[in-house]
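ok posting inputs for the flavin mononucleotide job
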Amino acid sequence: MAKVAINPFRPVYPTPAALITSVAADGKPNIVTLGEVFNLSLRTPPVVGIAIRKATYSHGLLMECGEYVVNMPTVKLMTAVDGCGSVSGREVDKFARFGLTPVPASRVKPPLIAECPVNIECRIIGTEEIGDHDLFKGEVVAAHADAELLDGGGRVCADRLDPLCFLYNLGCKGEYWSLGRKLGSAWAAKKK
Ligand SMILES: Cc1cc2nc3c(=O)[nH]c(=O)nc-3n(C[C@H](O)[C@H](O)[C@H](O)COP(=O)(O)O)c2cc1C
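and the output
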């Protein structure tokens, strides 16, 4: 197969479309949709990174507040996710506009979003300017899942997550996708 050169804009795919909550000094919360959300350290400690442009309202709130919550939406929330990434909290109360419900977090000031089945509370431990985005590194101080996601042994069932995926690269103009079917188990080769 011949290889052709392509535009290296946002070349790694897919990513989640996640909803990040932050809060202003007067207590007013905001939501921003981000595709640039990463697991940076897994256990010791768990750290979730987000990359966000300085021009957003959320960037200033994150700098001020030092905390954020990563809320993982399902496919059903696509319209709200797209809305939270299309308007600014400078002008709009996105909770009211998109029918989302703030719920107090256990360890941080920004709220969880009730409609998102998984919520990850993060405290910022570092920031880094990287080209056109700033990377925020958030140590996970608490994480929550809807009880219906768990099996009898308390493990999250992947087939109940229904995550919303974001593709915006390789000439594609920005699209939401759902996951396909389960193909197999990881590290099966090691177990043989
Ligand atoms: C699917 C999607 C993914 C996005 N990903 C990012 C991202 O990773 N980083 C970023 O700075 N902006 C991203 N945006 C744009 C912001 O969500 C958008 O500028 C938003 O209106 C900023 O809101 P705020 O001003 O209330 O913070 C994305 C938008 C959409 C729709």
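notes: The CA atoms of residues 119 and 160 lie 15 Å apart. The mean pLDDT is 96.
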